[in-house]
C-alpha cells in the first residue's frame, strides 16, 4: 500500500472507539471551547464583573478593529515580495509553498506594536479590558471561518486529493483540505504561524504593559513574558521546520487547527500573562531571575533537539551528534511513486526517548507559569493543557509513523523504547 492517509469510515461497523473519535470528542470540543474561552477571559480579570451575556459574540467596534487589523497585518506579510520555502510534497503530488519572512514579520510586529503603544498609551489597558469582547469576535469569526473551510473543501476542493466520507461534525472538526489557499496565501501559514503566534506574542506584551500601567514593575511577570517572547522568537526563526510537522503534513485546515489558533491560542496559551495583570506574581526578584535562567535553558534545549533532527535529515545522516557520527536505523516506506528509503536517528536526544523535544517544551511552559505559583493552579492552565495535548500528540504521531514505516517502526521502538521520559513512559 502506498503511504497515504487512507481515510474511510464505515457507520455499520461503528465501534465504541470510533463513536468517541468521530462524534463525541469533536462535539464535546466544539461545544465546550467557546463558552470555556469566554469564561476564562471573564474570570481571569479577577474583578466582580458581570458575566458576559450572548451579546459578547457580536463583539464591539473596538474588538472587531483589533481582530481585523491583526489579520490584515498577518495577510500583508504573506503577500509582500519575499523568499519562498516549500513543505513536503503530499502523496497526491501537491507541494505547498510558503513565505519565508517569519523573522522579519516577528520583529516588524513587535516594533509596530510598541510604536502604537507609545502613540496611544491607553491601548494595552483598553485591549486588556475589552478582551472578553475580542474573544467574542474571535469566536464568531473562527466558527464561521471553519464552516467556510468545510463547505469549500467539501464542494469546491482546490486539490486533486480524494478522501473518504466522515460524519459532518468530524469533518468540521478535522477540516477537509491539507493545504488550502485563500487570496493567494496558504491558510495554515496565515492562521497558525502568522495570526496565532503573533497574537500570542502581542497579547503577552499588551498584558505586561497593562500590568505596568495598572500596578508597577514586577520581575516575575517580566520574566514570564520574556521567556514566552524568546520561545516565540525561536518559533519564527524555525518556522520552515514547522512545515515538516504533523500539523502541516497530516492535519487538515479545520476547527482543530484554525479555531485552535484563532481562539485557543489567544485565550489559553496567553492565559498566564492575562491572569498576572490582576494577580501579579509574588515571587522575589532573585527567584524570578533564577527561573529566567532555567527557562532560557529549556527553550534552547527544545530547539537543540529539533535542530539535531533537522541537521540529521538535511545531511542524510552524515553528521555528528554529540561529537560522534550519528547512529540511525535504515527504514523504507511505500509511496504512490515507489518505495523510498529513509533513516531514523537513534543517538543523542533522539536515542533517549522518541519525543525528548517535548520534555523541554513542557519544562519551558512550566517555567513561565511557575512565577505565579502562589495563586495555585490557574497560572498553570496552559502547561497542564499542553501536557495533555502532547501526550495525545505522541500517540497520533506514532500512529502516523507506524502506518508509514510498518515493521521498521517496530524495530525503531525496540531500539528507543521510551516515548517521553526514559525509564518511565
Ligand atoms: N506548544 C505547542 O502547542 C506545541 C509545540 N510543539 C513543538 O513543536 C516542535 C515540533 O514537534 P512535532 O511536530 O510535534 O514533532 P517532532 O519534531 O517530534 O516530529 C515528529 C516527526 O519526526 C519524524 N521523526 C520521528 N522520530 C525521528 C527520528 N528518530 N529520526 C528522524 N525523524 C524522526 C517523524 O516524521 P517523518 O519520519 O515522517 O519525517 C515524526 O512524525 C517541537 O519543538 C515541539 O516541542 C509541538 C506540539 C505542540
Ligand atoms: C482543542 C483544540 C481546539 C486544540 C487546538 C490545538 C492547536 C491550537 C495546537 C495543536 C498543535 C499546536 C502547535 C504545534 C507546534 C507548534 C510549534 C511551536 O514551536 C509553537 C507552537 C505551535 C505552532 C503550536 C500552536 C498551537 C497548535 C497548532
From TrEMBL:
Membrane topology classification: Multi-pass membrane protein
This enzyme's EC code(s): 1.3.1.21
Entry superkingdom: Eukaryota
Matches recorded under InterPro entries: ERG24_DHCR-like
Any one Gene Ontology molecular-function term assigned to this protein's record: 7-dehydrocholesterol reductase activity
Swiss-Prot/TrEMBL catalytic activity: cholesterol + NADP(+) = 7-dehydrocholesterol + NADPH + H(+); 7-dehydrodesmosterol + NADPH + H(+) = desmosterol + NADP(+)
Tagged with keyword rRNA processing: no
Cross-referenced Pfam families: ERG4_ERG24
A single GO BP: brassinosteroid biosynthetic process
Recorded GO CC terms: endoplasmic reticulum membrane
Keyword Transport listed: no
Alphabetically ordered keywords of this record: Cholesterol biosynthesis, Cholesterol metabolism, Lipid biosynthesis, Lipid metabolism, Membrane, NADP, Oxidoreductase, Steroid biosynthesis, Steroid metabolism, Sterol biosynthesis, Sterol metabolism, Transmembrane, Transmembrane helix
Compartments it resides in: Membrane
Segments passing through the bilayer: 20-44, 56-78, 98-121, 133-151, 191-210, 216-233, 254-276, 282-303, 355-371
Family membership: Belongs to the ERG4/ERG24 family.
Entries under PANTHER family matching the protein: 7-DEHYDROCHOLESTEROL REDUCTASE, DELTA(14)-STEROL REDUCTASE
Protein name per Swiss-Prot or TrEMBL: 7-dehydrocholesterol reductase
Organism: Darwinula stevensoni
Lineage: Eukaryota, Metazoa, Ecdysozoa, Arthropoda, Crustacea
Amino acid at each position: 500500500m502506498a503511504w497515504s492517509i487512507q481515510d474511510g469510515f464505515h457507520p455499520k461497523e461503528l465501534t465504541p472507539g470510533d463513536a468517541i473519535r468521530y462524534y463525541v470528542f469533536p462535539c464535546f470540543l466544539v461545544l465546550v471551547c467557546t463558552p470555556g474561552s469566554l469564561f476564562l477571559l471573564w474570570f481571569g480579570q479577577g474583578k466582580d464583573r458581570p458575566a458576559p451575556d450572548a451579546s459578547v459574540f457580536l463583539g464591539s467596534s473596538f474588538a472587531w478593529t483589533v481582530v481585523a487589523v491583526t489579520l490584515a497585518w498577518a495577510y500583508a506579510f504573506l503577500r509582500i515580495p519575499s523568499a519562498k520555502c516549500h513543505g513536503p510534497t503530499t502523496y497526491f503530488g501537491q507541494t505547498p509553498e510558503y513565505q519565508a519572512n517569519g523573522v522579519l514579520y516577528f520583529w516588524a510586529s513587535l516594533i509596530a506594536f510598541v510604536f502604537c503603544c507609545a502613540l496611544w498609551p491607553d491601548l494595552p489597558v483598553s485591549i486588556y479590558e475589552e478582551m472578553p469582547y475580542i474573544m467574542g469576535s474571535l469566536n464568531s469569526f473562527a466558527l464561521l471561518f471553519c464552516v467556510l473551510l468545510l463547505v469549500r473543501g467539501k464542494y469546491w476542493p482546490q486539490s486533486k486529493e480524494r478522501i473518504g466520507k466522515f460524519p459532518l461534525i468530524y469533518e468540521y472538526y478535522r477540516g477537509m483540505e491539507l493545504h488550502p489557499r485563500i487570496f493567494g496565501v496558504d491558510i495554515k501559514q496565515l492562521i497558525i504561524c502568522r495570526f496565532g503566534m503573533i497574537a500570542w506574542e502581542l497579547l503577552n506584551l499588551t498584558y505586561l504593559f497593562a500590568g505596568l500601567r495598572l500596578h508597577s514593575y514586577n520581575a516575575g511577570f517580566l520574566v514570564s513574558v520574556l521567556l514566552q517572547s524568546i520561545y516565540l522568537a525561536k518559533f519564527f526563526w524555525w518556522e520552515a521546520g514547522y512545515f515538516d510537522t504533523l500539523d502541516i503534513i497530516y492535519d487538515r485546515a479545520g476547527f482543530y487547527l484554525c479555531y485552535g489558533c484563532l481562539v485557543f491560542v489567544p485565550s489559553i496559551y496567553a492565559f498566564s500573562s492575562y491572569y498576572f495583570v490582576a494577580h501579579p506574581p509574588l515571587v522575589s526578584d532573585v527567584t524570578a531571575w533564577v527561573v529566567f535562567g532555567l527557562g532560557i535553558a529549556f527553550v534552547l534545549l527544545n530547539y537543540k533537539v529539533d535542530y539535531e533532527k533537522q541537521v540529521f535529515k538535511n545531511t542524510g545522516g552524515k553528521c555528528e551528534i554529540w561529537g560522534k557520527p550519528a547512529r540511525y536505523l535504515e527504514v523504507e516506506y511505500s509511496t504512490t511513486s515507489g518505495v523510498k528509503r529513509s533513516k531514523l536517528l537513534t543517538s543523542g536526544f533522539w536515542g533517549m526517548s522518541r519525543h525528548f523535544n517535548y520534555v523541554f517544551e513542557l519544562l519551558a511552559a512550566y517555567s513561565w507559569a511557575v512565577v505565579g505559583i502562589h495563586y495555585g493552579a490557574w497560572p498553570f492552565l496552559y502547561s497542564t493543557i499542553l501536557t495533555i495535548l502532547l501526550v495525545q500528540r505522541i500517540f497520533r504521531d506514532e500512529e502516523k509513523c507506524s502506518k508509514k514505516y510498518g515493521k521498521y517502526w517496530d524495530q525503531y521502538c525496540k531500539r528507543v523504547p521510551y516515548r517521553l521520559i526514559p525509564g518511565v513512559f
